[in-house]
From TrEMBL:
Keywords: Oxidoreductase. PANTHER family: 3-OXOACYL-(ACYL-CARRIER-PROTEIN) REDUCTASE, 3-OXOACYL-[ACYL-CARRIER-PROTEIN] REDUCTASE FABG. Pfam families: adh_short_C2. Belongs to the short-chain dehydrogenases/reductases (SDR) family. It is an enzyme of class 1 (oxidoreductase). Gene3D superfamilies: NAD(P)-binding Rossmann-like Domain (3.40.50.720). NCBIfam families: PHB_DH (TIGR01963), PRK12429.1 (NF009093). It comes from the Bacteria. One of its GO terms (molecular function) is 3-hydroxybutyrate dehydrogenase activity. Its EC number is 1.1.1.30. The lineage of its organism: Bacteria, Pseudomonadati, Pseudomonadota, Alphaproteobacteria, Rhodobacterales. This is 3-hydroxybutyrate dehydrogenase.
């Protein structure tokens, strides 16, 4: 028998959700009945159109709120403007690759702000709302790089390890309440951004698509398959279910075996 989760009446705020993993999670939560608040730092017609599409397809309330996740005040204002936050998904993130001695200080600061500090600020603003409602779910999107490391990604890896630590602390501070906090740790997920990288990788390595995916992009992912944004969303929905009520303060790897190595 399939496990179903009805999130009707709940509101989910998902940061960095006008594309990729964040949008995939928003859609799956909406399919489960949750009202959703999309977010990014832009304020385009297409951003608001995405929210309208979700509302029309899923029959829920959906809106888009602009907020710059590099600014703590904006992070807190996002939650305040949402007004309700039963489910908080901290997904916003950026990346930069360079050796530590050459890593630009401003890139380090931006990655730590958007990938880590934003989750602190949104969580700080959301927990009082969850406590008032008597129920809540904090879902932080970490990474396989929250559990292991690679060279040249110092800021990203530091931030994602930090997200795992923040998740554990949040769980301990809410352990006796009907609030849980967990981190999803994806490996390589097939997003539009990743898909766009494949032709350049094919050219660089002089390989066909299947070979460059298996041998270059998924070199560390034993399944040799991308995870999907729908799978990320399904994992988030599960963490919101009653079945996951005693799952808190932990990481769930959706990485095709990456961290088993």
């Amino acid at each position: 028998m399939a496990i179903t989760t009805d999130l009707s009446g709940k509101t989910a705020v998902i940061t960095g959700s006008n594309s990729g993993i964040g949008l995939g999670i928003a859609r799956e939560l909406a399919k489960a009945g949750a009202n959703v608040v999309l977010n990014s730092f832009t304020d385009r017609d297409e951003d608001h159109a995405l929210a309208q599409e979700i509302a029309d397809v899923c029959g829920v309330e959906a809106r888009y709120i602009k907020a710059d996740m590099s600014k703590g005040a904006d992070c807190r204002k996002l939650i305040e403007e949402a007004g309700v936050c039963d489910i908080l998904v901290n997904n916003a993130g950026i990346q930069h690759v360079a050796p530590i001695p050459e890593f630009p200080a401003e890139k380090w600061d931006a990655i730590i702000a958007i990938n880590l500090s934003s989750a602190f600020h949104t969580t700080a603003a959301a927990l009082p709302l969850m406590r008032k409602a008597g129920w809540g779910r904090v879902i932080n999107i970490a990474s396989a790089h929250g559990l292991t490391a690679s060279p040249y990604k110092s800021a990203y890896i530091a931030a994602k390890h930090g997200i795992v630590g923040l998740t554990k602390t949040t769980a301990l501070e809410t352990a006796e309440e009907a609030i849980t906090a967990n981190a999803i740790c994806p490996g390589y997920v097939l997003t539009p951004l990743v898909e766009a990288q494949i032709p350049d990788q094919m050219k660089t390595h002089k390989m066909d698509r299947d070979t460059v995916v298996r041998e270059v992009m998924l070199a560390r992912q034993p399944s040799k398959e991308f995870a999907t944004v729908e799978q990320m969303g399904g994992t988030a929905v599960f963490l919101c279910s009653d079945a996951a009520a005693q799952i808190t303060g932990t990481t769930i790897s959706v990485d095709g075996g990456w961290t088993a190595l």
